[in-house]
Amino acid sequence: MKFSQSKTNKGVTERDFSVTCQDRTIPGVLWTPEARSEPTPLVLIGHGGSGHKREDHLVSLARRFVRHNGISAVTIDGPFHGDRASDEVKNESVNKTLRRLNGEDIVDKMVEDWKATLDALQKLPEIGIARVGYWGLSMGTMFGVPLVAAEPRIEVAVLGLMGPIGGFDRLIRDAPNVTCPLLFLQQWDDELIPREKSCELFDAIGGRDRRLHSNPGPHSAVPQEEFFNTQAFLARHLSPASD
Question: Any idea what the CATH number is for the domain that residue 92 is in?
Fold first, then answer.
């Protein structure tokens, strides 16, 4: 793991980093409590399609985890997104970029990238072998379901705004292996993910401790209060007091 620029503001230290997994360089951002040396819980944050690791709502979420819950947070760019996008990809349509993701090998590589990132972070004294959660909507769920299913270190997850569409049937195969506590978000009038498809994915989740929050509105209109709800849900499960 290589760190580049770092800054601290209002008790939150933010560091850019890169991790190597096989022949891939994974760019990311880590947020931790200022001057913290003992291990903290960690939330992995997956961004949505056409987004990147520094989307405003994800940065705000990460900083709130640190400031209000004492929980560290990390994001990485997905394949063909952010600093991993070539000039060709940056100039193409969103739909064409998303079609690039339709393949088992892409999903498997992203799961490997997250695992490599988590391996590297857990060597840091401020992270260590502490509790780990996952937060990811839309494309963050497309990669998040296979990741949570395959990674036993993840103890709790927030997923949603996704279902088995456009060839992503793997979600239904992996979902039964998602057995940790889960909060799933759904937009009732989602123009990208039909509600019956998001319900199908939720129904396929294997864990018994799962709940569904559904709100009116299109795909991108998740109410602000749900971001606070998901923060509280993860913090409640990752806090030492939940033992």
Answer: 3.40.50.1820
Distance (Å, whole) CA 167 – CA 178? 20
Domain that holds residue 153: 2-242
Place of tokens 């063909």: 80
Q: Residue 215: CB partners within 8 Å, gap ≥ 6?
A: 185, 186, 187, 188, 221, 222, 223, 226
Residue whose structure tokens are 């800054």: 7
Q: What is the mean pLDDT of the segment spanning 105-117?
A: 96
* Residue 243 CB coordination number (10 Å): 5
Separation CA 145–CA 193 (nearest Å): 16
Q: Is the predicted pLDDT of residue 191 greater than 50, yes or no?
A: yes
Query: Could you count the other beta carbons within 10 Å of the beta carbon of residue 30?
Result: 25
For residue 10, the model assigns a pLDDT of: 94
The rounded distance, in Å, linking the Cα atoms of 173 and 48 is 21
Contact 211, 182 (CB under 8 A): yes
Of the candidates 234, 215, 231, 212, the residue with the CA atom closest to the CA atom of residue 223: 215
- What total number of domains does the chain contain? 1
Q: Could you tell me the pTM of the whole model? A: 0.94
**Residue 39 and residue 23: Cα distance in Å, rounded?**
30
Can you tell me the distance from the alpha carbon of 74 to that of 31, in angstroms, rounded to the nearest whole number?
6
Question: In this structure, what is the dihedral angle of CA atoms 77, 152, 167, 74, given to the nearest 10 degrees?
Answer: -10
